[in-house]
């Protein structure tokens, strides 16, 4: 106790710069706390979904001629469903097509609201469940021009949103009907900033629809959910993937393009992948809402 009293008496003593030392120590502790919190946040990122350890993000690996091999976080739209069809260990597959960021939308009353719009297929909530507060999510994602909004987005719209219209100010003719409301995904989720989820059945009505392509239009974020005990990143179905590529993507060889796929656990994707959400440079991209069919092979059988 005496030592503590003596230390307190020495704090204001001139010439020892004790206040500066205490300030520096406090700043050091604060920075350390921030770094520890950031590390914990990243370690828990995308672990909020049931069976998250069985969900994988698909990336494409491309090498053209003598160019270095490159990995890209996006794929053609038909890759995920094609893998599910031919690989029994895959129980679910889903795709996301980014549509508009910070989009200004007109509401029924001409009032405007901003939000991020993503196009998702009908299997999205089978892979990434969320609490549905109003409406039927599965039914909404099967119908063109219907969408779901997050709880936060519904609050920005003023509440009581089922049946209300959202009209895009950048995509001519895109008027969405709100059919369901879902609880926001947590902060440590890839989907936390998803304000509006638009049915993928809609995109053929206002742009090129590449959701079934196996080649070209590589702008989809593709995910699979596998059976328990399956480890695709360890090569559990590499042979099947290779046979699918050889069977349906033969024209890539004519262009001297080697194409393969990589599978990363979703909980590790953000920290392990330096190329996340990059698109293949061999695919063109025009306005944010138009995706031309640069070279396309459609998965039909």
TrEMBL record:
Domain MacB-like periplasmic core: 75-229
Membrane-crossing segments per the record: 20-39
Keyword tags: Membrane, Transmembrane, Transmembrane helix
One Pfam entry name: MacB_PCD
InterPro entries in the cross-refs: MacB_PCD
The organism's place on the tree of life at top rank: Bacteria
Record's protein name: ABC transporter permease
């Amino acid at each position: 106790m005496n030592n503590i009293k003596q230390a307190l008496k020495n704090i204001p003593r001139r010439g020892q710069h004790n206040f500066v030392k205490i300030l520096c120590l406090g700043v050091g502790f604060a920075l350390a706390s921030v770094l520890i919190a950031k590390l914990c946040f990243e370690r828990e990122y995308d672990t909020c979904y049931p069976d998250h350890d069985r969900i994988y993000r698909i990336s494409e690996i491309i090498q053209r001629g003598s160019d270095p091999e490159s990995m890209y976080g996006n794929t053609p739209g038909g890759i995920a469903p094609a893998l599910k069809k031919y690989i029994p260990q895959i129980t679910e597959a889903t795709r996301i097509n980014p549509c508009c960021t910070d989009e200004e939308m007109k509401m029924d009353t001409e009032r405007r609201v901003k939000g991020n719009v993503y196009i998702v297929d009908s299997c999205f909530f089978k892979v990434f469940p969320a609490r549905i507060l109003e409406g039927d999510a599965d039914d909404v994602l099967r119908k063109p021009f219907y969408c779901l909004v997050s709880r936060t987005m519904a609050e920005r719209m003023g509440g009581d949103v089922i049946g209300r219209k959202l009209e895009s100010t950048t995509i001519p003719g895109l008027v969405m009907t709100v059919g369901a409301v879902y609880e926001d995904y947590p902060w440590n989720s890839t989907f936390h900033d998803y304000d509006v989820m638009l049915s993928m059945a809609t995109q053929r009505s206002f742009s090129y629809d590449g959701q079934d392509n196996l080649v070209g239009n590589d702008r989809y974020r593709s995910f699979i959910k596998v059976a328990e005990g399956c480890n695709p990143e360890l090569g559990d179905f590499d042979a099947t993937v290779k046979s699918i590529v050889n069977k349906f993507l033969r024209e890539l060889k004519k262009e001297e393009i080697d194409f393969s796929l990589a599978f990363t656990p979703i909980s590790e994707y953000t920290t392990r992948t330096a190329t996340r959400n990059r698109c293949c440079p061999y695919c063109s991209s025009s306005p944010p809402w138009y995706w031309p069919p640069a070279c396309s092979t459609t998965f039909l059988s």
